[in-house]
Amino acid sequence: MNWTIILAEAAAFALLFTVIVLTAGGKNDSPASIHNYPPDIQEEYFKTHERVDVNYQSKSVMLAKSLGVVLFTVILFVCAMLAGADTFWQGFALTFGMMVWIGVYDTCFIDWVLFANMKRFRLEGTEQMDKAYHQKWFHVKGMLFPGIVFALIPSLLVGLLIALIR
C-alpha cells in the first residue's frame, strides 16, 4: 500500500468529516444528534423542550449510526482501493486505522475545540453552560466506547469488499 496516498486520504477524510459536522451542526436539536451531548446538557435542554429518546438503541439514533456506517464504508472503501489494499486484512487495517484517526481528530479538535467553543453547537437553553460544554472526559469515553466498536463495522465491511473484489 502507498503511504503517501494514505496520509493524503487521512487529511482529506478529516476535512470531509469537518465539513459534514459543521454542515449538520446548524440544527443539533434533532433526536438523531442530542445523544452526542453530555447528560447534564441533555437534562437542561429537556427542561424546556420535548423529551426524545437518546438511548443508543432508539430508532433515530440507530438510523443516524447506520447512515454513518454506510457513509464511512463507501468513503473508506474508495480510500482502500486508491491506497492499493489487496487483501481483507489490508482493507480492514486501513479502514480501522482511518476510523481511529477520525475518532481522535473528532475528539481532540471537533469536540474539544469547536464543539466546546462555537455557539452554533449550543442547544437552546444551555448557552450558559460553558463548563458542561468543555467536558473532555465525556468525549474520550465516547471515542473509546462505543467509538471503537463502531469503527469495527465499516472496517469489517471494507475488508470483506476488498477480499471479494481483489
Quick description:
The protein has 166 residues and is an all-alpha fold.
Please provide a written account of the structure.
Helix content is 70%, strand content 0%. With 166 residues, the chain is an all-alpha fold. The longest helix is centred in the middle third of the chain and has 30 residues, at 88-117. It starts with a helix and ends with a helix.
Give the SSE layout.
Blueprint: H1 3-24, H2 39-46, H3 59-83, H4 88-117, H5 130-133, H6 136-144, H7 147-165
Characteristic key phrases:
166 residues; mainly alpha; 7 helices; 0% strand; 70% helix
How would you describe the shape? elongated
Number of strands: 0
Q: In this structure, how is the largest beta sheet organized?
A: none
**Contiguous helical run count:** 7
Fraction of residues in β-strands: under 5%
Average of the residue pLDDT scores: 92
Helical fraction equals over 70%
Helix-strand string: HHHHHHH
Tell me the Rg in angstroms: 17 Å
Helix and strand content put the structural class at mainly alpha
Low-pLDDT runs of 5+ residues are none
How far apart, in Å, are the first and last alpha carbons? 14 Å
